[in-house]
């Protein structure tokens, strides 16, 4: 399943025109961006037990970094990308220091509250479009024609390469001593601390890494769509990221990718059939959650090794 999804993503720019369905190039580019965001959330939720209901805020921060700099005629990717990633890291660090002092439902609620603060800040920014959003005239410029994001194929494979890179980083983290501490902290934080391991630092670093990955997804989304709006970081976007992760399978390497593909493809197909597609999609999600604890990856019997 994993190999099939990755091969399909790699082949879509050639398959879609051959099938006379070029629209699917954009659809799969969006799917991969959401997959990057879901992979970042799964690092802290699936392995660290930190259910963040405000994770989409980093998607918005990465996107607005591109849009606002572009609004001021700064289109260089060598400026926009570090700003997008750096701001996401700083915000994740501040939010992490505050949120990681709580657990369970309190952690969920405080991540939601802090993310909504940023959301309403973007709504109140009238100069940058307020809730109408902000158009992006030019994609980020790397200054070389061999890496020109204005080329849709280059843009697509850049997203694909970032997705592979994020999966590799996540795999290295999960398989490392750092990842073992993170999982042990999720299972029994008190016992790990009693062993002399400062789990707060580990969880905070994971929180910041997840924020950076999601900010990178926001950078790519802004360049792909040429548009940003406060809706990118609203609470229901964070909810969708959680659903993608649960649907694909938490604590698995490729689960969030599969979850993003299933979630977005089903919503895309069902919405073309009926405007009441949620009536079909909702029960499907309930069935998966109730009867497939390992998500789609668990159903297919290909649960990734994580220890």
Write up what this structure looks like:
- The chain is an all-alpha fold and 307 residues long.
- The protein is 72% helix and 1% strand.
- The chain has twelve helices and two strands.
- It has helices at 2-18, 23-45, 56-71, 77-99, 104-124, 152-175, 177-194, 199-225, 235-248, 255-273, 278-291, 295-299, and strands spanning 134-135, 227-228.
- Strands 1-2 form a two-stranded antiparallel ribbon.
- Helix 6 packs across helix 7 (177-194) and helix 9 (235-248) crosses helix 10.
- The two termini are 21 Å apart.
- The relative contact order is 0.19.
Strand content: under 5%
Which ranges are low-confidence, i.e. pLDDT below 50, for 5 or more consecutive residues? 303-307
Order of helices and strands: HHHHHEHHHEHHHH
Summed over residues and divided by their number, the pLDDT gives a mean of 88
The spatial strand order of the largest sheet comes to: 1-2
How would you sum up the major sheet?
A: 2 strands, antiparallel
Distance between the termini: 21 Å
- From the spread of the alpha carbons, the general shape counts as globular
Which radius of gyration do the C-alpha atoms yield? Answer: 19 Å
Number of strands: 2
**What structural class do the secondary elements suggest?**
mainly alpha
Number of helices: 12
Helical fraction equals over 70%
């Amino acid at each position: 399943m994993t190999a099939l999804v990755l091969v399909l993503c790699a082949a879509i720019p050639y398959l879609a025109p051959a099938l006379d369905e070029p629209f699917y190039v954009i659809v799969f580019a969006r799917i991969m961006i959401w997959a990057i965001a879901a992979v970042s959330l799964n690092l802290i939720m699936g392995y660290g037990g930190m259910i963040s209901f405000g994770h989409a805020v980093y998607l918005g921060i990465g996107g607005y970094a591109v849009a606002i700099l572009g609004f001021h005629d700064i289109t260089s990717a060598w400026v926009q990308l570090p700003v997008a990633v750096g701001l996401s890291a700083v915000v994740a660090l501040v939010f992490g220091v505050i949120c990681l002092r709580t657990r369970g439902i309190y952690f969920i609620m405080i991540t939601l509250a802090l993310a909504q603060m940023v959301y309403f800040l973007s709504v109140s920014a009238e100069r940058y479009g307020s809730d109408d959003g902000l158009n992006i005239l030019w994609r980020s410029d790397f200054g070389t024609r061999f890496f020109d994001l204005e080329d849709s194929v280059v843009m697509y494979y850049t997203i694909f390469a970032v997705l592979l890179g994020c999966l590799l980083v996540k795999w290295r983290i999960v398989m490392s001593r750092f990842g073992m501490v993170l999982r042990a902290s999720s299972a029994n934080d008190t016992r790990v601390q009693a062993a002399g391991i400062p789990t707060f630092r580990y969880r905070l670093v994971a929180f910041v890494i997840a924020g950076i990955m999601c900010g990178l997804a926001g950078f790519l989304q802004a360049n792909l769509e040429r548009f940003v709006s406060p809706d990118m970081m609203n609470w229901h976007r964070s909810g969708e990221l959680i659903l993608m992760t649960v649907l694909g399978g938490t604590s698995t390497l490729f689960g969030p990718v599969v979850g993003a593909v299933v979630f977005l493809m089903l919503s895309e197909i069902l919405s073309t059939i009926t405007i009441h597609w949620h009536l079909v999609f909702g029960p499907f999600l309930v069935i998966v959650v109730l009867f497939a604890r390992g998500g789609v990856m668990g159903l297919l019997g290909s649960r990734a090794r994580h220890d």
